[in-house]
Amino acid sequence: MRVTILGCGGSGGVPLLGGADARGAWGACDPSEPRNRRMRSSIAIQAPDGTTLLVDAGPDLRAQLLAHGIGRVDAVLLTHSHADHVMGLDELRIMNRIMGRALPLYANAATLEDVTRRFDYAFRPVTPGFFRPALEQHEVRAGQRVNIAGFDIRLFSQDHRVMETLGLRIGGFGYSTDVVEMPEPSFAELDGVRDWVVGCFQRQPHPVHAHVAKVVDWARRLQPARTVLTHMGPDLDWAWMRGALPHGMEPGFDGMVLETA
């Protein structure tokens, strides 16, 4: 199984809009390091036959799919309905044309309620030509084991403070974006994970996102072979993290590929 990190930035990406020259506010990140340039968080999970599950569809989706050579999407799983994870849903119109059908979209009840209100036109009956995106809603919930596009997925609950987000586990791979506290049953779901991609927004505590020390503690508890940080803000410079993180932990970057099982 191949996992491509399409984007590993926070809600504003890195750099943020603005800056002294209006070409970006980089914070602590070195603008000369290309791995500090981060689009909004999303991953593509691909089976050996090319079947592709897209996890989240933020506002950078078109650029991400083009940059990383993702030419098909078989299904979409949304972790939650915050704008940086759903505002690219309209870009899936072209994927409808490529695939020749509506795309199944999986999310929990609260997320489905939100996206069907905001993107109501995407859930109407399919019309010839796909002049608007065509999505089929499928409700899932934390604690459920589901098969999506041939992937056997275990979903678990994450505390994002303002809402529940969905984490996912496929075999030895785990994905946990937008989380500030991990419920005990979810730690049990992650037990034995080998490759874990987990959100970590900044160095100091944050009200709705995990910070460096917390994620280090989580990784020490779970002991994955590899922990990769995602959903990183401008406080987290790539080179600083390479030097500061313990063995087995590393920062992600846009386009990073994990071959996992």
UniProtKB/TrEMBL annotation:
Annotated SUPFAM superfamilies: Metallo-hydrolase/oxidoreductase (SSF56281)
Domain Metallo-beta-lactamase: 39-211
InterPro entries assigned to the protein according to its UniProt record, in alphabetical order: Metallo-B-lactamas, RibonucZ/Hydroxyglut_hydro
Highest taxon of source: Bacteria
SMART domains from the UniProt entry: Lactamase_B
CDD domains xrefs: metallo-hydrolase-like_MBL-fold (cd16279)
PANTHER family associated with the record: HYDROLASE C777.06C-RELATED (PTHR42663:SF6), HYDROLASE C777.06C-RELATED-RELATED (PTHR42663)
Protein name: MBL fold metallo-hydrolase
